[in-house]
Amino acid sequence: MVRMPWVSLDFAQGRGRLPDDAQLRLMLTRAVLIVAEAAGVALLVGVLDARLPILALALILLLHVTLNVFAWWRRRMGGCAPAEVALQLAVDAASIGAVVYLTGGYANPFISLLLVPLILSAVMLPAHFAWAMALWVGALYTALMHFYRPLVLQVSDQAAVDLHLAGMWLNFLLTAALVAAFVGHLAAVLRRRDAALAEARERRMRDEQLFALGLQAAGAAHDLATPMGSMRITVDDLVRDYAHDEELAPALRVLTGQLARMETVLARLACAARARSQALALPEPAADWLSRLLEHWRLMWPDARVDLRLADDLPKIADDPALEGVVVTLLNNAAEVSPEHVTLACRRDQGTLLIEVVDQGGGADAGKAPGWGVGLELARAALVRFGGELELLEQARGMVARVRLPLTGSGA
Hints:
The chain is rod-shaped. It has a five-stranded mixed beta sheet with strand order 2-4-5-7-6. The protein is of the alpha+beta class. It has three domains: 146 residues, no CATH class; 71 residues; 132 residues, Histidine kinase-like ATPase, C-terminal domain (Heat Shock Protein 90, 2-Layer Sandwich), CATH 3.30.565.10. α4 packs antiparallel against α5, α4 runs parallel beside α6 and α10 runs antiparallel to α11. The chain contains eleven helices and seven strands. A hairpin with a 2-residue loop joins β4 and β5.
């Protein structure tokens, strides 16, 4: 059974208390019922000159108002359990039945108001309470077919028939409004739930693929550790032996820097494989974090020219390897298509932190070297953990890759 979004799962399963907003909706619905009952009695007495037991009807309406006041008091005391809500709705149905009993019984077209407590029970309460309410209102309707006080109107028989038909018409409008208000809302909830389930399935499939890729990356990092150590020893020996060689020394320095960067990447992969908690990453000023990131990145792209543009009011940001990997991926993509013109910018924007990588490569795929095609997908998946998003915007002379992070999630 589908529950309204303002009814908690624990309450729908028979535990806990009715949420505050659901209590307010229930009290408002009961107030509308009381007003409808009073208006119907006033119409019968004031317009149709019906002979009704005014005192008894007034007492029933007073008791119904007292129930709503009691519900308000219970809300102030912390709310009602499912059984208590079911009892209140049963009293609502009994109050409607009592008014109908004194105003013509089952011939009164407004007897269909008994459906209101039933609908509320089906929406808010566990299934067994809803079935109990169905039996209760069914019993009331059956009793009103045999026991009621006839309604005496000072009108002709034809006018009485016309009034009955008019009452049926008005009751139809009320029922249609009720269906639109509750069933229509339930349909909207179902559509949102189906959309959320479809999105969750898609996210799960993507996460499974990325998890498998992460396992492969962790295994690759482990397998590369030994040959990387051997390469480090060999390169150090070459640097020591050819330190004064004007032809080999510059190339060996570049190779040494590249090895240092690869060792850093492997170390970060090892940290990620050990599931290092994000809480261990101490926040630091975003300007310092980006400057250091760019300095390390230049070891891989020594010939790339990057213009760093930082605003003055940047917050602190957590030094997380996943977030650094996102920015490095975007810088790599930009440097592949536009190594001479890359811009890295960072600024605040309406409660978010924007990190932009701009190239002048002529478009999304212009000049881009072939790769595995997973860089951007990994970047998007990593940003989900921070509550952020990645936008790719084409401009006249290239692309803008924009990372948007909420300040609360970026260490601000």
